[in-house]
Amino acid sequence: MYRRGYSTRRQGKSSRSFSSRPGKHPRRTEKALNPARFVNKAVAVGEEAAYVVKHGFCDFKIDQQLVGAVAVKGYEVPTPIQDQVIPYIMDGRDVVGIADTGTGKTAAFLLPLIDKILRNRRERVLIIAPTRELAFQIDDEFKSFVREMKLFSVCCVGGMNINRQMSELRRSYNLIVGTPGRLKDLMGRKMIDLSKFNTVVLDEADRMFDMGFIGDTRRILGEMPKNRHTLFFSATISHEIEGLIREFTKDPIRISVKTRDTSKNVEQDIVKIGLGRTKLDVLDELLKKDGFDKVLVFGRTKYGVEKISRALICMGFRADSIHGNKNNSQRKRALGMFKESRIQVLVATDVAARGLDIDSVSHVINYDPPATYDDYIHRIGRTGRLDKRGTALTFIE
Ligand code: AMP
Question: Taking every annotated instance into account, which residue ranges of this chain make up the domain DEAD-box RNA helicase Q (predicted)?
Fold first, then answer.
């Protein structure tokens, strides 16, 4: 239901209508998005019928070292996607996992695949991800599991020194995780021979499709043995994605953990800016309130995001930004500082923040409204992860 917006100190006396925003940057779909869709009372965690997990990590018959590594990471019980897909992957079945980031899907495919490599150290695994950040995240999780196992990965993403990746590819490795463009480039340079890879994971296939990477992905898979083990993960299943599932997998088992709207445990509200005030004034007030400890702010353009971040720093906040004009090490550093709670605010564009897994984001603030409702759902999905409560606020001028 549409109710009055979230209160800030000097809540607007009068406010302009959302749909007739006369700003300098008219947005293509802003008019189409009804602010009522940005308001939602969070469902108490645990209110809905919970999935009953059937396995412990010991029941999966994965290597004991791996069970130990899982315990060291503090994972006590498998998440629903892990509970359901791991047995099938262990059996060598192709799997279609319909799951968003935040469900534990990375470990759902990594654990059985690491086990596969431990059983045969000549086994090579390829993981294709749509964004560098997601590739880094997967690589980090892999490295955290295999610390004592003498298994190695190479992360092949664009925007990083290709010579370094080439020298890593000359050494021995068990797994490559990469983005389609850079993988293709390295294949063209004869640095990767995919005929030796029997297992592939396509992560966030729907994003891959949205970002126009399917042609490259098709070419990459075309170099792999036909008789391979394919794992396909996607948050959504559209007509096009169905086509890709048919094209890329063989008799897959389908597991969906989309049993409920992932945004339901996110308290959502609008914040009216009001006449005579700027969005920056309101952001300043909010960030000084209790509980705004780890805040992800979304801006529309790279330029705008940089400007907000600089303004916040000038105002004395610990803030940084991620967007396409920053190089990989700057993005990685900003993200690392945010994850470790060394900065309070991370300002991001939609593309840079896609699929990011950040623990305990207290608030998502839509400084600029999202272009589409789909973008909105992706943005607010950065909070309220793994059944925690979160808050998402959308600024309305
Ligand atoms: P993902 O959906 O793979 O991005 O994972 C989301 C977050 O859940 C990551 O921070 C993981 O470290 C964490 N995670 C994955 N599996 C478990 C588990 N079984 N128990 C607790 N946390 C987990």
Answer: 55-83
Candidate from 361, 386, 387 with most ligand 1 atoms within 8 A of CB, to mutate: 386
pLDDT in tens, 242-266: 998 999 999 999 999 864 455 667 8
**Rg, the chain, Cα only:** 22
Residue 214 CA to residue 85 CA, distance in Å, equals 24
Ligand 1 atom showing the smallest separation from residue 102 Cα: 2
Which domain-ending residue is among 223, 256, 289? Answer: 256
62 and 112 in a single domain? The answer is yes
Residues 113 and 192 grouped into a single domain:
yes
Residue nearest to atom 6 of ligand 1 (CA): 102
Mean pLDDT of 371-377: 81
CA of 38 relative to ligand 1 center, distance in Å:
27
| Burial (CB count <10 Å: 0-12, 13-18, 19+), residue 251 | exposed
How many other C-beta atoms can be found within 10 angstroms of the C-beta atom of residue 199? 23
Q: CB under 6 Å to ligand 1: residues?
A: 75, 78-79, 82, 101-107, 357, 359, 386
Strand 175-178 and strand 125-128: the pairing is parallel
- Residue 7 included in any domain: yes
Going from the Cα of 333 to the center of ligand 1, the distance in angstroms, rounded, reads 21
CA separation, residue 2 to residues 5, 36, 103, 270 (Å): 9, 5, 29, 9
Q: Which atom from ligand 1 is nearest to the alpha carbon of 386?
A: 8
Per-residue model confidence as pLDDT tens digits over 177-210: 999 999 999 999 999 999 999 999 999 998 888 8
> Ligand 1 centroid vs 360 CA: distance in angstroms?
12
Domain boundary among 256, 279, 307: 256
Q: Where are the beta strands (DSSP E) in the chain?
A: 95-98, 125-128, 153-156, 175-178, 199-202, 229-234, 253-256, 266-272, 295-298, 319-322, 345-348, 363-366, 390-396
What's the pLDDT score for residue 194?
96
Nearest CA to ligand 1 atom 16: 104
| Between residues 160 and 374, the one the model is more confident about | 160
pLDDT of amino acid 11: 38
Q: Which domain holds residue 18?
A: 2-45+261-396
